Amino acid sequence: MMRAVIGLLCLLALMPAPAKATLTQLPAATEVIVYKAKRRLELWQGSKMLRSYRISLGLNPIGHKEQEGDFRTPEGRYTLDMRNPRSDFFLSVRVSYPDPHDVARARKAGVKPGGAIMVHGLPNEPRWPPEHYAREDWTDGCIALNNADMMEFWMLVADGTPINIRP
To answer: Rounded to whole angstroms, how far apart are CA atoms 67 and 71?
Structure first.
């Protein structure tokens, strides 16, 4: 599946572009807001909402991530700080969890804070039928989109964009 998408993107890159078409015509999100209870991720450009997507969360979604392996999605303000086009999922963008406050809290509790929290698409090698991914929380603590939404997210959100993950 990933090879087909990459092939399509390469083919599109080779096609001549209309004279006035540029990548700057795509809207750029200035903030990402996640509402865990609503299973929604929103892209904002200032006071204008650009997009809203359904998401899946960690297997234990209620509450802030406290330690490695708790299957929780963190809550708070972070930054989207790195892209991975070759992850085990259809594209991924890293959330800057844990921040220094998360590390200090985990250290005080005598646990590891965990990490590798991403916004990503579906697994490249699915374990369950597509319906499962569409309706269930299934990640280890990440924020998951379907692949079409992840492609759009990838194009509209730059590294360094703030992400606010709310309960």
So the answer is: 9
